[in-house]
Amino acid sequence: MAFARLSALLVLALGAVQINAAITKRVTCASGHVTANAACCALFPVVDKLQSDLFDGAECGEEAHSALRISFHDAIGFSIHGGKGGGADGSILAFNSTELQFHANGGIDDIVAGQFPVFKEIGFLTAGDFLHLAAAVGTANCPGAPRLEFKFGRPPPKAAAPDLTVPEPTDTVTAILERFADAGFAPEEAIALLSSHTIAAADVVDVTIPGTPFDSTAGTFDTQVFLEVLLKGTAFPGNGSQAGEVLSPLAGEMRLQSDFRLSQDPRTACFWQAMVNDQERMMSQFKAAMAKLQVLGQDTRKLIDCSDVVPVPAPFAGPIKFPASFSNADLQLACPQLRFPNIATVAGPAPTVAPVPGS
């Protein structure tokens, strides 16, 4: 089979690269792709397969946001002090029968069900490499996203991560920041990682409305989520108030309790507010935080930089805008020392946000 042949080629390439990585020049793969490292050639067919079999032909839909979500849930089960999981090792995929039992991983079972057959068919990637490559490729399908890095060569995971390592929407800001700090992230990096909510949706906060997005532009990687979390809430999108959500400003949109609390807490409010309408800031900080997240627990000296296999995302068309009928008067700002940017308002009645396609 094609992937079996790729596996044999990969072993040879990995050996050659690890011996002589310092002087490896850019190479042209048999597929015609150009890469900085011969070992990465084996990944271009994998990227094509992910796009066709997992991401519906390179769409920024449910599967793309799910791939990003599971990469976070996998990697964050780690502590710089030891005693927790192996970090970005794919344990949530390899030991899914254990980790899917954790409350914080609600809804991850659907992601595993979609990814696991593709992972098994590819065959030669470890769970960690598959999972974090899928996250980078899926994110690249969303206009406005940064081109994430991808490091290749993670060993197979040794064990499942322990429970209670993934922050939940019901957690206090203190608990969230402490968990991030234990994994090695400062408060500003935690907010940067939450940029992922721009393309995300909730499936289990209110089970009656799966696929409910967190902003009105869920198909675009933009700062709209940082704006809309700051707007005054009026209603819940589904079956009344559920644990982990607060009033949302728009029909069909969910606002997580944790997002709102982080936007208002003095430790993080200015970081949150600074993201609004600053696409470059969000892109650069998210890319940097993800680069750190996706190698947690790994010996990076043994990994190969294959970032050039990740597709280049389409640029952000912009700009973000207040949803119709909203303006500065509807903002709940907790960082008064930071000047709020000038943002136009969409004309017309307030919109109803549609579920994320594919949910």
UniProtKB/TrEMBL annotation:
Ca(2+) 1 binds at D74, G87, D89, S91. The keyword RNA-binding does not apply. It is found in: Secreted. Ca(2+) 2 binds at T198, D215, T217, D222. Heme b binds at H197. InterPro entries: Ccp1-like, Haem_peroxidase, Haem_peroxidase_sf, Ligninase, Ligninase_C, Peroxidases_AS, Peroxidases_heam-ligand_BS. Keywords: Calcium, Disulfide bond, Glycoprotein, Heme, Hydrogen peroxide, Iron, Metal-binding, Oxidoreductase, Peroxidase, Secreted, Signal. Residues 1-21 form the signal peptide. Pfam families: peroxidase (PF00141), Peroxidase_ext (PF11895). The record marks R69 as: Transition state stabilizer. PROSITE patterns: PEROXIDASE_1 (PS00435), PEROXIDASE_2 (PS00436), PEROXIDASE_4 (PS50873). This is Peroxidase. The lineage of its organism: Eukaryota, Fungi, Dikarya, Basidiomycota, Agaricomycotina.
